[in-house]
Amino acid sequence: MTQPTDWLATLQAVNQTAALHRWCGIQVLRADPGEADVGLAWRPDLGQHTGFLHAGLMGAMIETAGGYAAATLVGQVVASHYSVNCLRPAVGDSFVARARVVKPGKQQTFTACDLFAINDGKETLVATGETVLLAVVA
Amino acid sequence: MTQPTDWLATLQAVNQTAALHRWCGIQVLRADPGEADVGLAWRPDLGQHTGFLHAGLMGAMIETAGGYAAATLVGQVVASHYSVNCLRPAVGDSFVARARVVKPGKQQTFTACDLFAINDGKETLVATGETVLLAVVA
Amino acid sequence: MTQPTDWLATLQAVNQTAALHRWCGIQVLRADPGEADVGLAWRPDLGQHTGFLHAGLMGAMIETAGGYAAATLVGQVVASHYSVNCLRPAVGDSFVARARVVKPGKQQTFTACDLFAINDGKETLVATGETVLLAVVA
Amino acid sequence: MTQPTDWLATLQAVNQTAALHRWCGIQVLRADPGEADVGLAWRPDLGQHTGFLHAGLMGAMIETAGGYAAATLVGQVVASHYSVNCLRPAVGDSFVARARVVKPGKQQTFTACDLFAINDGKETLVATGETVLLAVVA
Predict the structure, then answer these.
(1) A45 to chain B: which residues are within 8 Å by CB?
(2) Cβ atoms of B36 and B73 closer than 8 Å
(3) Which residue of A20, A56, A81 is in closest CB contact with B63?
(4) What mean pLDDT, rounded, does chain C reach?
(5) Which chains touch C (3 or more CB pairs under 8 A)?
(6) What is the pLDDT confidence band of residue D4, given thresholds at 50, 70 and 90?
(7) What is the C-alpha to C-alpha distance for residues B97 and D64, in angstroms, rounded to an integer?
(8) What percentage of chain D reaches a pLDDT higher than 90?
(9) How far apart are CA C85 and CA C126, in angstroms?
């Protein structure tokens, strides 16, 4: 396929087609070859039992950022495996997941991601994760 | 602590305190010592780009069911690590995640979970996952 | 390819081509469509710092059994990802890893495995693990 | 406990107590607070079916380096979970696993590791991995 010249605009358009992202507010903040960042503003209805960001949404951010990072190098992909390490309580005004491609491939692409909570502009690493993406065979 | 005599009612009450669960509709369907099932009815706003259940919500169900299964044996826990294998497109009228404790522990509890899509009453395994829970030290 | 009629003999022959297996003694004990067991007799030189079976060899058994289980359904594969949960000290006269295919696929095959320590004929679950295998494209 | 003043010498002494390491040749190359590298020289008897470094030994290096990195910050630990991503064929004259602590903790310590094959002095990333370590309660 012809590679987009503007990955940020392309992935922002793709991102708007994900219904869950429209509801919870996951946005594409940055996209460069092999890298993508997604952001999410905190709202109380995104929380788990103790009021922190729900681990499922931490995973959603990690898996989404990983997929977008992979797409910049290998085109359309689907997640086949992802994992989340919950390092610290996910408390913040907003959150950003920064993913990078570790190894692109025709069959599989491996990505890694750091998830930060942002409080008053200060970033704290609250989770790390990995996503393995499978190329969609046309 | 005194063990609840009715795990289902206890966990259903806990589940209502999770804001994300109230929004998306994650419910506790079953709870027995070392096991818990959570369910979710499909709605289009739970979807990802292609309209299937979002992988982040698959993870939310797996991690939630694992935590509830662990709680029946070891009390209050927090997830420290979870992983999701996306086996088939998550398309269904509803979904059920069935978790079981693989190994309880004073420090860590290991759980495994199968996630099924239900279509016209027929169950299809769409994902598997693991959650490692850490005991909350009072 | 023509499927072998005797998976046990086929995989035992394959297993003898793995140099590490010849040294440490990993053997194929059973192979049926979608399932394979590998065994290992304890020797002190297989140990880690405290004298238990080294976690790397636990992984070797899990990844090997998963690969053999996958091969019975999809032919030649290579491991792309595996994980190991260390549940209990791996102490035994011998060890057996029992793997099963969770989902075969043209691109990826997912397997799960239980690793048991055997003491005086009694089996104890000491680890669980998962292996994702990629089909080798001829 | 009193922290060692020379982590490299301390961990090299510990490493010699692991029988598998003495056989296969896993050595501690570097140790600093929160970081550790282990090395392994290639020998044909460390191989799998196609003659590459066995994935089990890749895991052994990743889990060992992660454990040593953790020990520099939190003292005695045991691995509770590790995972390995096999990115490229593990072919080299020698191999080095470089681990770093992502998050130390009183209960759990999270580490990440890159595994490189070295050919004629040139390093190629062949695997990545994560190890979760549990503090040994005295």
Answers:
(1) 19-20, 22-23
(2) no
(3) A56
(4) 95
(5) A, B, D
(6) low
(7) 34
(8) 93
(9) 9
From chain B, which residues contact C within 8 Å (Cβ)? 83, 85, 87-88, 102-103, 110, 112, 125, 128, 130, 132
Residue B5 above 60 pLDDT? yes
The pLDDT of residue D1 is 47
List the structure tokens of B119: 């279509």
Give DSSP secondary structure letters for B72-93: HHHSSEEEEEEEEEE-S----S
If you measure CA to CA, which chain A residue comes closest to D103?
A87
Query: What's the pLDDT tens digit per position in A59-110?
Result: 999 999 999 999 999 999 999 999 999 999 999 999 999 999 999 999 999 9
pLDDT the model gives residue B4: 65
The DSSP code sequence of chain C is -PPPS-HHHHHHHHHTT-HHHHHHT-EEEEEETTEEEEEEE--GGGB-TTSSBPHHHHHHHHHHHHHHHHHHHHSSEEEEEEEEEE-S----SEEEEEEEEEE--SSEEEEEEEEEEEETTEEEEEEEEEEEEEEPP-
Contact: B85, A83; criterion CB under 8 Å? no
Mean pLDDT calculated for residue range C112-137: 96
CATH of domain C7-135: 3.10.129.10
- pLDDT at res. C121: 95
Residues of chain A contacting residue B46, judged by C-beta atoms under 8 Å apart: 19-20
Residue with token string 């060692």: D4
Q: Give A1's pLDDT tier (boundaries 50, 70, 90).
A: very low
Smallest Cβ–Cβ distance between D20 and the set C45, C64, C84 belongs to: C45
Instruction: Spell out the domain ranges in chain A.
Output: 7-135
CB atoms C102 and B132 under 8 Å: no
> Above 90 in pLDDT, residue A123?
yes
Chain C interface with B: residues with Cβ < 8 Å: 83, 85, 87-88, 102-103, 110, 112, 125, 128, 130, 132
Interface confidence (ipTM) of the complex: 0.95
Cβ of A83 within 8 Å of Cβ of D87? The answer is no
Nearest to D57 by CA among D90, D81, D29, D80: D90
Least Cα separation, residue D43 to chain A (angstroms): 26
- Interface with A, mutate which of C76, C78, C81, C131 (most A CBs under 10 A): C81
Chains touching D by CB (3 or more pairs below 8 Å): A, B, C
